Each structure stands twice: as structure tokens, then as C-alpha cells.
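Re: your question about Putative RNA-directed DNA polymerase from transposon BS

S., sorry for the slow reply, the queue was backed up all week. Below is exactly what I fed in.
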Amino acid sequence: MIDHLGRDASHRLMNIINISWSSRRLSRDWKRTTVISIRKLQKDARFPESYRPIVLTSVACKIVEKMLLKRLLFYLNSRHLLPKEEYGFKSGHSTTDQVLFICQKIRYAHNFKPTHHAVGTFLELSKAFDTV
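Result:
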């Protein structure tokens, strides 16, 4: 629907979003959400952990979120504030890239021992967001 807005409507929407951005206020309607619980496959319906919450937000709020993400990433990348080893939530990077990066570091350290070393710390973060 947003992609098919006319030129005038697109400019009006952009103006509304920019006013919201500069005033640091988000419309109450844009912040309104609907939470739907969907039961995970083969999980007992009696337990809360058997459900995955799905949050539905307004289209306008999603547009603002994407704009905020792009502006934040531009700021962080232009000032080199994210380490090159950071692969999470980066366009063009995946967990596969991170695994290959670690493997290459290990091979490099192994090939040039004893002057180079590889040390790794791995954390188990399953259900980490359940307590946030």
C-alpha cells in the first residue's frame, strides 16, 4: 500500500515522520500494538513457554523503525564505531560469515604457531531474551 502512494501522499507521510523525528514524539496510534500468542509445534498448551508472542505494529511505526535503523547504522558505520568482527544485523553478513571468519582466524594461528594464538569464548544464550 505504501509503495503505491502517490507523490503528494508520500511527501506528506515523510513530512509527518520528519516532524515526529524532530519533535522526538511518536503518535500514540503508531505505538499501539496487538500481541498474538501462537503455540509452538508439539508443545503443551498448558505452559506459557509453549507460545511464541507475535507483535503487530502499525505500518507507520514500522517505517519509522526502518528509518531509525538506517540512520543509526549510517552514524555508527561512518564513525567506525562497530568492530569489523560484528556480523549481527549487518546487511550482507550472516552467521555463516562469522563462522568462516572464526575458522580462518584459528587456521591462521595454527599455521603461524608459536607466535600467534587463537583464544575463543563461547556463550550459550538460549532463551536469553525470555528474561529481557
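The longest strand covers residues 34-39. The helical segments are 7-23, 28-31, 59-78, 95-111.

Happy to talk it through on Thursday.
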